[in-house]
């Protein structure tokens, strides 16, 4: 966080996410709601809906590298900002969200 109170987190594109998953370097957290998640999600993604995020974020180990995902990238960016304010530093937001995802989808 800088002196203006702004928080920083990295962004990652979907192709880089696919590579990271293949190399088992990161965990995926899907912040969409249950019905969205059930309609199709990245295999191995853990669901923590944004509506429950403040109560459940401790389920994410601050030492893990984590990529947050939503439909378009906006809600996951809010989750990244929240985590950064809690002191998490190994977080990334997937740009474009599931709308941009070309990889495998699990239902």
TrEMBL record:
Family matches, as PROSITE patterns: RHODANESE_3 (PS50206)
InterPro entries reported in the protein's UniProt record: GlpE_sulfurtransferase (IPR050229), Rhodanese-like_dom (IPR001763), Rhodanese-like_dom_sf (IPR036873)
Pinpoint the Rhodanese domain residues: 22-106
Q: One Pfam match, by short name?
A: Rhodanese
| Name the record gives this protein | Rhodanese-like domain-containing protein
């Amino acid at each position: 966080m800088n002196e203006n109170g702004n928080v920083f987190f990295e962004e990652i594109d979907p192709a880089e996410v696919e590579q990271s998953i293949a190399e088992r370097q990161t965990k995926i957290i899907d912040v969409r709601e249950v019905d969205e998640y059930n309609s199709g999600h990245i295999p191995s993604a853990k669901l923590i809906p944004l509506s429950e995020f403040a109560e459940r974020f401790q389920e994410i180990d601050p030492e893990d590298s984590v990529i947050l995902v939503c439909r378009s990238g906006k809600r996951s960016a809010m989750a990244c900002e929240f985590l950064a304010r809690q002191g998490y530093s190994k977080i990334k937001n997937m740009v474009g969200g599931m709308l941009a995802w070309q990889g495998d989808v699990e239902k």
